[in-house]
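Now read the record:
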Amino acid sequence: MKELEKLIPKRCPGVSAMTVKEIIIAMIEEDNVISLEKCGQINIYWCFKNQVIMKLYEAVCTLRVKIADIKEEIKALETDINHQNKSEKCPMFSSGGIKYQRDTLLQELDTLKKNITSTMKDFTAVEEMMWDQARICGEQTNLGNQIHNLEVITDNIEILLSYLAKRCGIDISAIKDELDIPREFEEYNFKTFELETCEI
């Protein structure tokens, strides 16, 4: 856990070290995304990419079933209400030998409509988290372009610094320190961003 508390904030800037433990415990106990195995006195945390995708897929399937069920309930209630609207709108009525209160059914219909709206929002949020091959390739291309642009910029900075150092007779390290420019620019290897080969 201590290693994760140090590693995750570096890889995920939006996550602080103080919240890493809470997030991991929630992903183990509530979401079942991360698995925990105890090996002697060491706790090993692991998670496979396919496991996360399957979890999201199951959530989407569950939401789809709920949406379909709620739609059927709304459809049945609307049909019943439309049928009753053709007759006198009395506070109490019977259908199929069962007595109902009109106000109660209208409240239930309103609640069901709110539930389906909320469920649709959850479904949309989960669906946006699922990446297909086209989206993966698009992100890879975008990252490649950004890395290329960064390399061009850092090369240009090095050329300008070298020119200033020679022109003014100043050590290039002194110029970097004065302008708060790193002594060495961090290098990025595009292969580290590749998830899998794009074949569309």
In short: The helical segments are 2-11, 17-29, 49-85, 102-129, 133-168, 172-178. The mean pLDDT is 78. DSSP finds six helices and four strands in the chain.
